[in-house]
């Protein structure tokens, strides 16, 4: 587990392609005011940005399929991190604008982050595995 004892969130890494696409998404005047968009922008602002070709294989990127655990409830999930128009909760496709989605973006296997679900319920998400990462498979043009 990698929870910072300083009270700060763990470091995150985002590919340049994901960073640019997410910035364009957040450039919408309608989205910009939403709390979820503000939270995502805060995550992007603290991220280390790497060329997609140099992205570590153990990092959650857009369209990654991952396993995670809520350490506070013990609930395990398999999720795919997607853009809002691709989201489908029933099939495990979680929007990057959902609290869980923006919390997971850029985390590496073994890292955890404290986050709040809608309604204020605390989450402590721990990334346990990456099942698929586009960059690791040479898919740089999503």
TrEMBL record:
Entry's Gene Ontology molecular function annotations: DNA binding; kinase activity; RNA polymerase binding
Pfam families: GreA_GreB (PF01272), Rnk_N (PF14760)
Protein's name in the database: Regulator of nucleoside diphosphate kinase
Annotated ranges, domain Regulator of nucleoside diphosphate kinase N-terminal: 10-49
Gene Ontology biological process terms, A to Z: DNA-templated transcription elongation; regulation of DNA-templated transcription elongation
Keywords: Kinase, Transferase
The organism's place on the tree of life at top rank: Bacteria
InterPro entries per UniProt: GreA/GreB_C_sf, Rnk_N, Tscrpt_elong_fac_GreA/B_C, Tscrpt_elong_fac_GreA/B_fam
Domain Transcription elongation factor GreA/GreB C-terminal positions: 56-132
